[in-house]
Amino acid sequence: MKFTDGLWLVRDGITINGAVQNYVVEKTEEGLTAITQTTPITGRSATLNSTLLTVKFHSPLPGVVGVKIIHNDGVIPRGPSFELTEGTGDHVKIEETEAQTVLISGGLRVVINKGTHWSVDFYRGDERITGSGYKSMAYITDQNGNTFMREELDLGVGEFVYGLGERFTAFVKNGQVVDLWNKDGGTSSEQAYKNVPFYVTSKGYGVFVNQPELVSYEIASEKVKKAQFSVAGESLEYFVIEGPTIKEVITKYTSLTGKPALPPAWTFGLWLTTSFTTDYDEATVNSFVEGMAERDLPLHVFHFDCFWMREYQWTDFQWDSRVFPDPVGMLKRLHDKGLKICVWINSYIGQRSPLFEEGRKNGYLLKKANGDVYQTDLWQAGMGLVDFTNPAACEWYAGYLRDLVDMGVDSFKTDFGERIPTDVVYFDGSDPYKMHNYYTQLYNKVVFEVLEEKLGKNEAAVFARSATAGGQQFPVHWGGDCYADYESMAESLRGGLSLGLSGFGFWSHDIGGFENTAPAHVFKRWLAFGLLSSHSRLHGSTSYRVPWAYDDEAVDVTRFFTKLKCSLMPYLYDVAGQAHEQGWASMRAMVMEFPEDPTCEVLDRQYMLGDSLLVAPIFQENGEVKYYLPAGRWTHLLSGETVQGGSWRKEKHDFFSLPLFVRPNTLLAVGSEDSRPDYDFADGVKFGLYSLEDGKSAAATVRDIHGAPELKVEAVRSGSTVMVTAEGSGKAFTLAVKDLGAIASVEGAEQVDETTVSVGAGEKSVTFTITLK
User: Fold this and answer.
1) pTM score above 0.85
2) Catalytic annotation on 126?
3) How far apart are the first and last CA of the chain?
């Protein structure tokens, strides 16, 4: 939201009371409280008829400092609020001189100037990373009596801003005006399903605005050297989070707002759906499932979209008996074929649903101020919305979900959650303006916790569209409604990378696009991208997404990349474990892995799948692609070709290939199974040791099906000698050296051929040495 008219003027009707001078800084149990004047204090008379801002500093975690700016502190707090980790503050140190008061938290130092010129500066060691200067903190009023709180943080020369949720606009947010307000806007606009008030910059720090309501950002837009954010009301709280790397920033941010749960291994396989408005019954479903099996296409999850329920009755959680007369038997038959089952739901209750009267009678639906149920015809005729601030409504809704799980449903696609009105009254008195974005958090939490309760820890997964800060705790999320073209494929990737830099670990998208039907060449290129994403789903709107509906080659491409993904599961499930433990996205923007490479700061058409695989999807019909390889010797995973990085490359690929490179100094674990994502990853695992440089090491962890580390292997090179240590499972494995020349000899293990070593089963602690020719 813009308040000024250029650099010198203020917009008509706007009054800005900005912090100009420090009055006093006081130590408190939580940290520090500063009182700042919005007009210079020239004498006693200047203290009359004046505006003060109270600025509170505290630190819940090392390297994380909260700043709360308050004008009037008598406002009754109304929820909701983000659920944050509450630290003790024992790590905080405070230092004071005549000129400054300093709060130190981990590697972050906050300096408050005591002089006549107000400023707050944030330091990493001796490096100033950002700050709030003269008049940047401000209390603002407009001609209608509306009030706003604003902050402006400095941006340095060449500093780029990323994140703010799943945004389909330009990957680098500099120059953008971003209003965080969840909307169902597709992937081709500035609107977003997943708005997250957190950004991270190329300088290695992040800023989380602890406000669930609309936060309006001006990122190097209203003032080109400032990242500005504002909210309506009388207070504003934000946290500065120091890295010093982007990965460390995200680890600390997710320590504050919640780590992603670990999805079960089966969710990483290929999902196939009925699509949205297509006609289908059990015979149709069976034709899809059998068609996949007949064509040797591994399939792991089948999803029933909206019309598993009768039209006009969404959501009633009842199978449409006209087309699914035996749902329990059908689900058992599908389970017997090795499939997991997902069904579509949302939190809206159509008037024709039997649940509507239950919800109305018991007060489970959102109400208007006069006590009427809030209803709309947008989506389902006369629908109401479940009020998840009512514990009884949550239990009511959860009860129907439990019945479906007992019936054989393994997962729920939690659609919608964005079109939440503000002219309503919540059961617990929550502020409807704050609830607009936060509603999805309560919705997905109820569904996720039912699955966790019924199926167990690390066995729950939803397929969610909407989210806000903290939503990463309830994976998986998908990118929403995209068109079936290359442009939407690229914008989907931008959205996924932005979401990954907002603390979300797992992300998917509709392979081939949702709206319309893609030409075969788009579908086949999207297959490679989709099956090299954390989660992979074939889904559309008005047409089926079975590969043979496109052409015969699409079948072969589907088979090729599905089997490739299954074989990579030992590696991918360790990447998933990192997302769960550290908060790092499975699909990572290049700047996240290569923060010191300036070329990587703006790349948004390629990504790192985990820390070791570089993927550059192809967005052109002719198969041409331009991509960048950072420095080092990279190896193409499919062809074995080695390439020296540090430059751009332009290539042409067929449908069975794309730039898919293994990073230098990588020990890559590949599984023995290529038809399923859920198997014993350590049994017969094969390690590839890629481009290990002298003096460097490479390590890999293989986890069990529940995510616990089962086998850890490390290789260290010194000259022509590579020492390998393995701890864990005691299961047999092989190790092949890549791009290192031939093996001259091996001590402590069995040499199979010139490049491969075998370790037999039995010993849980193994050390052996490879000598290279």
Assistant:
1) yes
2) no
3) 65
